[in-house]
Request: fold
Amino acid sequence: MRSFFAFLLTLALTMMAFGADAQEPPSTGTSEERPPAEPPPDGTDPGEGVEGAGEGEEHAAGDHDEVALRLARALEKRITVWRRPDGRVVHVSHCRSVRGGCRARIAAFARWMAELARQHRVDPFVLAAMAMRESGLDPFATGLAGEMGIVQLHPQGVGRGVRFVQSEAYRRRCARSPGACQREILEVGASHLASAVSRCEGIAEGLGAYNTGVCGDNAYSRRVMRERARLLELAKDRDEAAVAVD
Reply:
């Protein structure tokens, strides 16, 4: 199973070279006040920054790859609708038309989540849980106030400088690529979360601020932390390999 997901990560990165996502600098602003999007309810630091070259750098890269593999395993299970008697799995519909299928998209998301969580010193499984709670990993989910992307950036708030949020033509070009131009979305989301956690002096309080702009352990925080716990459980490598049906 591990080697299978490693292959998917490599495949996704290769495919993204043919439709690279634009990367814009994180913007600032207040987070949105809205209920979290689907799916229905059921929340460690990813590691220190790279301290130098050589052996330490290789070790950090290995840790990063391991986190990405665990995230990919958990998220792939999370978007599985059902498993057929012959072992094949059926994924949610919103990623089936992607080049490489749903697993190629998950591999891209997992790689970016691991990378950006480490860069911004936030828990990668919290970032993944936010994406599940906000959008169900659907890049084209749209919130009540026009929020866009897998972590639902507000167009007048933290998403005001993000191309994916602001340009419909750009979103159309992103639609078939494995990563759907979500690296910029995750970059801003991770940066905003890190700032909120630092300001509020706690992960639960920071999640509350990410959602409402006000520090506090609220219903949103608890939903994200429950999702995080679920993803950590799903990340355990104990299932036999399955063939996807996209």
Q: What stands out?
A: The chain is about 50% helix and 5% strand.
